[in-house]
Amino acid sequence: MEKKTPQPLRGAIYTLAQSGTLKNGSIADSAERIVFGAGSEFGDNKVWRNRAKRKTISQKLNLGLIQAAEKKGEPERIRGYWNAYYCQNRVVSHDGRIYGKYCKSRTCTLCCSIRKAEIINRYLPVLQKWEAPFFVTLTAKAVRAEGLARRFFVFKKVFRRICEKHKKRNQRGNGQKLMGIKSLECNFNPSKQSYNPHFHVLVPNEWVADVLIKDWLKLWTRNFALPTAQHKRPVQDLERDLVEVIKYGSKVFTEPDTNKTAKGKSLPNIHTAALHNIVTAMEPYRIFERFGFNLPKEEKERTFKVVPEGQSKEWVFNLPDHDWKNPKTEERLTGYTPTARLLWLLEENMDTDLE
Ligand SMILES: [Zn+2]
């Protein structure tokens, strides 16, 4: 892959040089750093080795996405991918915690994993009160890249129409209101060069699962959705199924069974041009959302604090090392080393053309 010119850091932690008067009356230059949020503990090095792994995947992936967006001349997208590339690029350690800024981009592997953890923490206690939850998959026929944006639009419209119908019925005292959580996901099939958007839905009972499938099929008609392609099953392991629902948008690595051609030739597992198409078409839509119920409101505090430079260390991620490094001492933060298989996947197994 081509070497990219690094872009200027935006929104990163910055250093404040401040002139202050010390107690003994001497004037000294002391520098301080502003750090954001509560930081995360550095006691467990394994957590941060995992982050170094995610960061490595995220940078490689976003470089591939940048290439795809450059081919199509889409500067907005390119900026967004660079933003994800630089997420948590500089971190500051202070008093056993590490501070960094998150980009919140959908193509940032670090932010997606944090988002997933937040969703699990918020929703699991609510979902645990459901009596007999069901897992539902709703899908329609696969489409080519050019039909993807339209397909997402219709997905949203059909689902909303089903919910509205039952809400009205319920208001008239006739039948239950539908509720659940759902996520929009899209897989790419490299051997057919087609896209398969689908909804993963968790609902409180089988009745809701049946209604969803029945109405979904009716609205799409047989030309677009077949009964055999829709699925429901009782939830056995709630946490596992919740994770399944919030995988967040699109799998980065395609499934082994879809990356073989008809002649059995293996195709790469990462398709950045296709992923770029999915990200672009999905942009106007929420990936994860609940329907028919509310969660208690949660206030989010935005905090920052100032820490003395002398009591903190700065670390900058360096892709060739797959780790954050102290620019002064060259010391590594986590000591993470990728497996040969991961390196092979990221170096040799990324395709930037198929879409
Ligand atoms: Zn991020």
Q: Key terms for this structure?
A:
alpha+beta, binds zinc ion, 355 residues, five-stranded antiparallel sheet, 8 helices, single chain, 15 strands
SSE layout and pairing:
Layout: E1 15-21, E2 27-36, E3 40-41, H1 45-71, H2 75-85, E4 90-94, E5 97-99, H3 109-127, E6 134-139, H4 148-171, E7 180-189, E8 194-203, H5 206-220, E9 231-234, H6 238-245, E10 270-271, H7 272-282, E11 288-291, E12 304-308, E13 312-318, E14 323-325, H8 340-348, E15 350-351
Parallel strand pairs: 10-15
Antiparallel strand pairs: 1-2, 2-12, 3-5, 4-5, 4-13, 6-8, 6-9, 7-8, 7-11, 13-14
Helix pairs in contact: 1-2, 1-7, 3-6, 4-7
The site of zinc ion has 8 residues, from α3.
